[in-house]
Amino acid sequence: MPVTRWRTAAKAGAATVLAGSSAGTASWAAYRHLMSQATSARGVIGRNTAKPPEADGVYGPGDLSPQRWRAGSSADIHLMIFGDSTAAGVGCAVADEVPGVLVARGLADETGKRIRLSTKAIAGATSKGLEGQVDAMFVAGPPPDAAVILIGTNDVTKKFSIPSSASRLHDAVERLTAKGTAVVVGTCPDLGVVTAIPQPLRTVVRNWGRRLARAQASATLQAGGHPVALADLLSPEFLAAPDTMFSADRFHPSAAGYELAAQHLLPVLAAALGEWTGGPLPELPEVSASAESRRLGTRAAASVDRFLRRRGTEI
User: Is 85 among the catalytic positions?
Assistant: First the structure.
């Protein structure tokens, strides 16, 4: 993730602080402070350029390793993964840790069926890249039976318009559901749990991500998909045990973090396929109490809130 993306997010918050201050010297100091934090965040958070482990194949109940998909192979359910680096599994050391594998294996064990896993996710992707990923799916063959989409973090760091990002997600989900695919979307994670990002920059990106997640959930439902609020579900664990939940780069999840996410995605996906036998699905929270408790009670944080609301109405 290049420095410019943190600088872009910092400029958004700095512009708000500048607008809310009548003292030119203080305003300039606030601007310089957020910009320095953007540079600092990039220096602290490692840049993970490693290619995620190859994980595609056919997973059967209890299989220790997948079978390679070849012409003439068969599977009961075709699962496809779309999105960004978290969907691809950046931060994983081996294929067994990749979120797509965890979901595929869980689905195989839950249903007793053979699951074909195909990954279209690309590290660094934003909502703008979803169209191309879905296009690639249609070129490769018929649509899958099920799909998981994880997207949003890069839209936040690139300061994309929230309505536009949500609209692009809606279009991708709708193209899949129109073909009969059961689609589950893990909405934007909570960047407020990344303690390597200093305050108040962390509040800027967290608030932006929280609003994007809500817009994504609405867009997903409208398109016939099933949203899973990963920020609300995962924040307490990531805040409580960052050394365990984050990988070495201090930004992407670790194997434990991905496993926790997969545990929340699996029941929703299985239920969407009509294959869930694990009992009633739990009510998903709308707001993370743990993350809310970390909000800054300052005028700067309130100003960031107002700025993001205004920005969310732009194209």
Answer: yes
Token code pair at residue 228: 């899973």
Q: Are 111 and 277 in contact (CB under 8 A)?
A: no
Among the listed residues 56, 78, 84, 85, the single catalytic one is 85
Summarised one tens digit per residue, pLDDT across range 184-243 is: 999 999 888 887 777 777 888 888 899 999 999 999 999 999 999 988 888 788 877 778
- Which pLDDT tens digit goes with each residue over 172-188? 999 999 999 999 999 99
CA distances (Å), origin 261, targets 120, 158, 162, 189, 238: 19, 24, 23, 10, 11
Question: Judging by DSSP bridges, how do beta strands 115-119 and 146-150 pair with one another?
Answer: unpaired
pTM: 0.78
Q: Which of 252, 264, 288, 303 is catalytic?
A: 252
Q: Give the integer Cα–Cα distance in Å for 185 and 163.
A: 17
Q: Are 82 and 130 in contact (CB under 8 A)?
A: yes
- Chain centroid, CA 192 distance in Å: 13
Please state whether 91 falls in left (phi above 0), alpha (psi between -120 and 50) or beta. Answer: left
Backbone angles phi, psi at 53, to 5 degrees: -60, 145
